[in-house]
Design goal:
single chain, 185 residues, alpha+beta, four-stranded mixed sheet, 6 helices, 23% strand, elongated, binds zinc ion
């Protein structure tokens, strides 16, 4: 389980391990907790035979310098297919990752860029059928608008095992209306 660490303004900063979260608790850096899930860490035993425990929340906001890095998320097939829920944006079918490809909506040969908004998840068949044509030329309209993930969507894409409360926190800020709650593997 990973804990969602927020900065002091309440914006997501990192996915961290329980051990890293414990360090923040011990250093008194946790300002507030938002998670509904708790994770109990067990520590050492004292002379009376009582074991120390530390209860971690699944979402914690920590004091510290605010990292201004909003540089976005690099475009990889793994993140692209997850953004599109492993659905081919041309035929609408869902596929296994190994059956999917990255389609450049405006083909590279026509000046299309390798960007989030010019990339679509496509099955091999559709990608082949489309060839080096635009969707209009191929008469293959896109079923969804390809978007660049915002900060909250970025944190969703980065972690495959998101708890329900973490998902609720992130999805409240999603720009896309798509149903990402289903959870993919
Ligand atoms: Zn397809």
């Amino acid at each position: 389980m990973l804990i969602l660490k927020l900065n002091k303004s309440g914006m997501p900063e990192a996915w961290i391990s329980a051990e890293e979260a414990a360090k923040n608790y011990c250093q008194g850096k946790v300002l507030f907790e938002l998670g509904e899930n708790q994770h109990v860490l067990h520590g050492g035993w004292n002379s009376e035979g009582i074991q120390s425990t530390l209860t971690l929340s699944s979402i914690i906001a920590c004091d510290g310098k605010i990292n201004q890095d909003n540089g976005g998320i690099s475009l990889t097939n793994r993140f692209l297919f997850r953004r599109d829920q492993q659905m081919c944006l041309y035929c609408g079918e869902t596929f296994q990752v190994h059956q999917l490809t990255r389609d450049h909506i405006i083909p590279k040969s026509k000046g299309g860029k390798d960007t989030w908004t010019n990339s679509a998840t496509a099955c091999k068949r559709c990608n082949h059928a489309k060839g080096a044509r635009t969707p209009e030329e191929a008469n293959m309209p896109l079923l969804a608008v390809p978007f660049k993930p915002n900060m909250y969507e970025r944190f969703f894409l980065m972690n495959r095992k998101i708890l329900a409360d973490q998902m609720a926190f992130l999805s409240a800020h999603f720009s896309s209306k798509r149903d990402w709650q289903k959870g993919l593997n």
